[in-house]
Amino acid sequence: MIPSDSSLLEMAANTTPGLQIQATKQCISASQNISKMSTMSFSFASKRKSFTDFRSSSHISLMKPIHSVKLAPIKFERMVTKAMSGASEQVPVSGLPIDLRGKRAFIAGIADDNGYGWAIAKSLAAAGAEILVGTWVPALNIFETSLRRGKFDQSRVLPDGSLMEIAKVYPLDAVFDSPEDVPEDVKTNKRYAGSSKWTVSEVAESVKQDFGTIDILVHSLANGPEVSKPLSETSRKGYLAAISASSYSFISLLKHFLPIMNPGGATISLTYIASERIIPGYGGGMSSAKAALESDTKVLAFEAGRKHKVRVNTISAGPLGSRAAKAIGFIDMMINYSLENAPLQKELYAEEVGNTAAFLASPLASAITGATVYVDNGLNAMGVGVDSPAFTGLDIPKDNKS
């Protein structure tokens, strides 16, 4: 099962968890003859007696008068996380913080430092959460060796300059719920040699024995062995394999981890727009698996919310050139398509998905459950591809990159 899984710049040390947004990298968009809007500044102040007692105020101040001019090209700025400073257990951070101190997260599906799973782990860690990782068994040795030898150190750098710590890495194959489900050819496969207790139920039990409880569960797993085949040419075996690895695996994880999740906890999975729109080349039942995952998110939100007070959401992420995504074969084409057609003509960064996950896992999102949250530069909102020759001659705003 291939995990469907970004490096942040080193910043000032001696800061505490909590996130705020800082612009660090620019890219240019379209310029138009428009009325220049006045510059606005927003400030937020909060007081609280506890992590959940927020009282905020805001104000908008006009800095310059409004007048009509021809603007220079508007610049989009890359948004990254930066740790907030000046806080302690007695004095809370200023503003509206994403504070996950004292929380523990289990992220299933990290096998390298290149995808969304890793980015989510980093954002959760930056907000103060303790990180546990489940890694596909055949990739476990390479992952742990790379981690131990420092090959991931550059991409482990958090906004405060420290390195993300992973409390423990567990072998995991989420296709199998219990040892009884594992066929003999997998048990004797040399890629599984030396590893034990890697089925979903066994991993959940190991986490319980090692740490007791968790607060956050992240599903960053997907695999479709026939993804390159059109759906109409997909075999029953290939279709069911895609559903098993990419959507039922989330049900299984939730089933076995819910008993050790603290009330108020949150689960997050990753989906893709192919669940609801036609994406040629994304075949083998993968579009069906993502549609099932989104439907399951709603039903599981009801069940987990009523029984365990746990929230269930999924993030529909745009295309990312991760190692896992490159296995599909046309990821670069999808990235280019997004750059040409999305409302925001900029690259999608893994940490933008990570930051959204940190928000959804935090008390700030305490009323959000059963939701599919799009993090794709707005591509999901488009009904047509505006780079089509059919739109030649229309006055379509474009990013002025010159």
TrEMBL record:
Highest taxon above the source species: Eukaryota
Listed pathway(s): Lipid metabolism; fatty acid biosynthesis
Cellular component GO terms, alphabetical: chloroplast
Main subcellular location of this protein, as a coarse class: plastid
UniProtKB keywords: Chloroplast, Fatty acid biosynthesis, Fatty acid metabolism, Lipid biosynthesis, Lipid metabolism, Oxidoreductase, Plastid, Transit peptide
Residue ranges crossing the lipid bilayer per the database entry: none
One protein family per Pfam: adh_short_C2
GO biological process, one term: fatty acid biosynthetic process
Matching NCBIfam families: PRK06300.1
Function: Catalyzes the NAD-dependent reduction of a carbon-carbon double bond in an enoyl moiety that is covalently linked to an acyl carrier protein (ACP). Catalyzes the last reduction step in the de novo synthesis cycle of fatty acids. Involved in the elongation cycle of fatty acids which are used in lipid metabolism. Required for normal plant growth.
Protein name in UniProt: Enoyl-[acyl-carrier-protein] reductase [NADH], chloroplastic
Source organism per UniProt: Solanum bulbocastanum
